[in-house]
């Protein structure tokens, strides 16, 4: 049950929060976050994902994104799902979401795209002209080809001022 409002300041704060929540879900802003709310999405927890996006976007001060709902995305095994569409039209789909993954999406994709130590920033490239060498990552002007997940830390360590993800244990 909600706490009792005991002062005009509390009422004002509640009204401001409600307005911010409404603004988040109205109109189309630079970035659009769409949570897929088909029957399978709802059954898999999409309502909680909408709430998590609202909380994370607000908590991280993201005002350039709007939050929307849609029907089924056709990938039932990946539900709950969300699609992030950037101003330039680039589209990213995220599946098997939970609150922690929503936090990661907002902090890493929508807010920064930069590692906590500020050494690396992630940008998604559409074409490096090296399809035969895919998957490819580019660091500065260096292209690394046929990259497997277990090699990412090794590659980044070549460019890091300090050890990358020191002490982390990643499975291959």
Structural summary, described in words:
With 172 residues, the chain is of the alpha+beta class. The protein folds into two domains: 9-113, 3-Layer(aba) Sandwich (Glutaredoxin), CATH 3.40.30.10; 115-172, no CATH class. It is 35% helix and 15% strand. It contains five helices and six strands; from the N terminus they run αβααβββαββα. It has helices at 8-25, 39-44, 46-59, 99-111, 149-157, and strands spanning 31-36, 65-70, 82-85, 91-94, 137-139, 142-144. A four-stranded mixed β-sheet has the order 2-1-3-4. A hairpin with a 5-residue loop joins strand 3 and strand 4 (91-94). It is globular. Mean pLDDT is 81; it is low at 164-172.
Topology:
Elements: H1 8-25, E1 31-36, H2 39-44, H3 46-59, E2 65-70, E3 82-85, E4 91-94, H4 99-111, E5 137-139, E6 142-144, H5 149-157
Parallel strand pairs: 1-2
Antiparallel strand pairs: 1-3, 3-4, 5-6
Helix pairs in contact: 3-4
Hey, roughly how much beta strand do the residues contain?
A: 15-25%
Distance between the termini: 46 Å
Order the strands across the largest sheet as they lie in space: 2-1-3-4
C-alpha Rg (nearest Å): 20 Å
What is the approximate shape? Answer: globular
Low-confidence stretches: 164-172
Overall residue-averaged pLDDT value: 81
The percent of residues in helical segments reads 25-40%
H/E topology pattern: HEHHEEEHEEH
Number of discrete domains:
2
Overall SS class: alpha+beta
How many separate helices? 5
CATH top-level class of the largest domain: Alpha Beta
CATH superfamily label of the largest domain: Glutaredoxin
Number of strands: 6
Biggest sheet statistics: 4 strands, mixed
- In the CATH classification, which architecture of the largest domain applies? 3-Layer(aba) Sandwich
């Amino acid at each position: 049950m909600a706490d009792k409002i005991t002062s005009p300041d509390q009422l004002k704060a509640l009204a401001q929060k409600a307005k911010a929540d409404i603004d988040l879900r109205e109109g189309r802003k630079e970035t659009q976050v769409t949570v897929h709310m088909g029957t399978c999405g709802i059954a898999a927890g999409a309502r909680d994902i909408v709430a998590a996006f609202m909380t994370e976007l607000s908590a991280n001060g993201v005002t350039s994104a709007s939050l929307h709902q849609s029907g089924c995305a056709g990938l039932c095994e990946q539900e709950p799902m969300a699609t992030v569409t950037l101003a330039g039209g680039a589209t990213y789909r995220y599946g098997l979401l939970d609150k922690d993954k929503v936090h990661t999406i907002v902090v890493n994709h929508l807010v920064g795209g930069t590692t906590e130590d500020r050494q690396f920033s992630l940008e998604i490239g559409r074409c490096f002209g090296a399809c035969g060498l895919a998957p490819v990552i580019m660091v500065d002007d260096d292209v690394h080809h046929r990259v497997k997940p277990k090699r990412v830390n090794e590659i980044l360590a070549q460019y890091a001022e300090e050890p990358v993800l020191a002490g982390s244990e990643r499975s291959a």
